[in-house]
Every structure is written in structure tokens, then in C-alpha cells.
Amino acid sequence: MKTLEKMGNVEKGRLLAHLLPEELSNIVQYIEQQTTTFLHNETEIRSNWKGTLVTAEFWFTLVRNIDKSIKNCGSRLHKNHRWFADQLFDGYDALFTIYCLVEYSAKEECNLKLKQGIHFFFGDEPLILTIVNNNNHG
Asked: Global pTM?
């Protein structure tokens, strides 16, 4: 097995799924909620976006890619570790997934072992900071 430092995001995502398969549906559901929140509040988020290395245009491309993956793959993401990792942790799309995982780890409903796993594999600092005034979707 590779060391953590040599693992890519797909490998980390697959290992997280293998270790905590009972959490996959919760993870996917939270990511889906986040895509909905971002897409429903896109205008507001774009207007408040601060200059960073990650542009709003790039970020919303990631959001749409993940949203499309969730819609196309459905429950396969909950049941198949390979699908979960390949669809949600591949390439730059992993940035949005990792953002969601770190956000989810701060929620009260996040399982302690999952929280620890997220922090171990992906850290505990948010990739971006957003402010959305609409709390119906988050």
C-alpha cells in the first residue's frame, strides 16, 4: 500500500469508502445538497466571490460536473466504492468533493469516525469560504 503522501485523491476516496461504507449514502446526500445550494444561489455567490486562485467560473464548473455525476450514477455511488471514488474524486472535481467533505465534517450529524477519516485524508480547513443568505438548501 502507498503512503498517504503518495496517494492521489481517487485512492484516498476509495479507501475512505472501504473503511466506512455505511457512510457513503450520507456523504453523497450531503454533496448533492451542496450542489443544489450552490446552483440555486449561483448569482449571489458569484457577486460575492473574492479574488482567489479559484475563480467563480472554475468553481461552478466543478459544481456542475459533480452534480452531473451524482445524477448520472445515482445509487451506484452509495454501493460501489470504485464508482464513488472515480466519479467524485477524479481530477479537479475532487476539489468540490473535498470541500463538501470538510464542510460535512463540521456538522453535528457527521459520524465521529467519518470526521476523523476526512480530516486524516483531506484535512480540516475549508478550501473556500462562501456566504449564502438562503439557508433552505444547506
From this structure: 0.89
